[in-house]
Amino acid sequence: MNPLVVEVAATDGAARCGRVLTPRGSYQIPAFMPVGTRGSVKGLDSADLEGLGAEVVLANTYHLMLRPGAEVVAALGGLHRFTGWTGHTLTDSGGFQVHSLRPKVDDDGVTFASVYDGAATRLTPEKAVEIQGLIGADIQMVLDVCASLPATPEVLRLAVDRTTAWAARARAHHDRIEARPEGQALFGIVQGGTDVVLRSESATRTVELEFDGYGIGGLSVGEPRAQMLEALEATVPLLPMDRPRYLMGVGDPVGLLESIALGVDQFDCVAPTRAARHGSMWTSTGRVNLRNAQYARDTGPVDPACPCPTCARWSRGYLRHLLAVGEPTAWRLLSIHNLTFVLGLMGEARSAIASGRLDDLRARTAEIWDR
Questions:
Q1: 220-232 residue pLDDT tens
Q2: Residues 6+ apart with CB under 8 A from 226
Q3: What whole-number distance in Å separates Cα of residue 308 and Cα of residue 282?
Q4: Residue range 306-352, pLDDT digits in tens
Q5: How many helices, marked H, and strands, marked E, lie in the chain?
Q6: Which residues, including other chains, have CB under 8 Å from residue 89's CB and lie 6 or more apart?
Q7: 3-state per-residue secondary structure call for 15-36
Q8: Cβ neighbourhood burial of 69 (10 Å; 0-12, 13-18, 19+)
Q9: What is the CATH number of domain 29-269?
Q10: Partners of 90 in beta bridges
């Protein structure tokens, strides 16, 4: 039985809003998932995320299996007790590291050199399922091959074929192992780069394996946004209406709204918090670079329209000072602001879909962010 149920409250074209019902409770869609790579969003704790209204947080299987180790996380009560997070969790499979760390890939799996000590680490579709079962997230992802773009047709074909074969192995293993939380969902992943024919094929083959939800991977890895959206348009209509659709690694405001308009339900990305740590603030009027000297004596908030605690209490001048002297407090305060912006944008999208005005929100956001 599928542990997740999509409850659609309203639609606007292909876009939809509502909730995903889970054994833990539910989360609203469209949803943005902050990225807590090593079990923590950098600079923030679980109470911060609860205060911001985040409902799902992503953790990185590759890093947690190396430090502190999946068995240690399990011994400490699983990911939720380990991190003190009471909301939903999703773990990626390590597949993005196939793109970013360039390990040795063969038909059976991948071999990495640990980023911590260089030791060889083997990951197979079955092993990824077992590790994520021990970590204990609400949703786990299959191991996939994320091809770097641009890529040759041969590279994309191999990525699709290996991802599909690995997905079938993961699906079978997930069904039979006991070392995972009851009701833990498993998402398949669609690959194919920007080739719309391969995207359609990958979506069809992945859906045939009957997953609890579907990730769309291998996009937002350097290709123009127009190509990403074209690939999405070829993919999303082939995914089941009653399952969540998750676009992996997209977090820019325009990309989020354009993808929502095509029917995507949930997203993750490090961009908002990474930008914050470098002083790039996302505001209702566009980007603000707090490192610029013009803000040294600025007594105003980062964004007068923002309801976050950072904007309510601290000035641009003070926050710029924290950045300039390397004070770690800056990471927390500025990350709180940027996540408030992105999570707020998801709330605006849900309201816009419910009122049939998503196109207006898309147009306003593009005017601000694409100028």
A1: 988 999 999 999 9
A2: none
A3: 12
A4: 999 999 999 999 999 999 999 999 999 999 999 999 999 999 999 99
A5: 15, 17
A6: 56, 57, 58, 59, 79, 80, 83, 136, 137, 138, 139
A7: EEEEEEECCCCEEEECEEECEE
A8: middle
A9: 3.20.20.105
A10: 58, 139
Peptide linkage before 30 cis (omega within 30 of 0): yes
Dist CA 103 CA 85 (whole Å): 32
- How many angstroms separate the CA atoms of 51 and 53, rounded? 5
What are the beta bridge partners of residue 21?
Answer: 5, 26
Q: What count of residues does the chain have?
A: 371
Domain extents in the chain: 29-269, 278-369
Alpha-helix residue ranges (DSSP H) falling in 17-176: 46-52, 61-66, 70-75, 78-83, 95-100, 125-135, 153-176
What token pair was written down for 235? Answer: 């993919």
Structure tokens at 296: 């040294």
- CA–CA gap between residue 117 and residue 123 (Å, rounded): 17
- Tokens in use for 133? 């079962």
Tens of pLDDT, residue by residue over 108-145, are 999 988 889 988 889 999 999 999 999 999 999 999 99
Tokens of 173: 């293993």
pTM across the whole model = 0.97
For the beta carbon of residue 203, count every other beta carbon within 10 angstroms: 22
Mean pLDDT of the chain: 95
Residues marked active site are found at 92, 268
The vertex-21 CA angle with 9 and 28, nearest 5°, equals 55
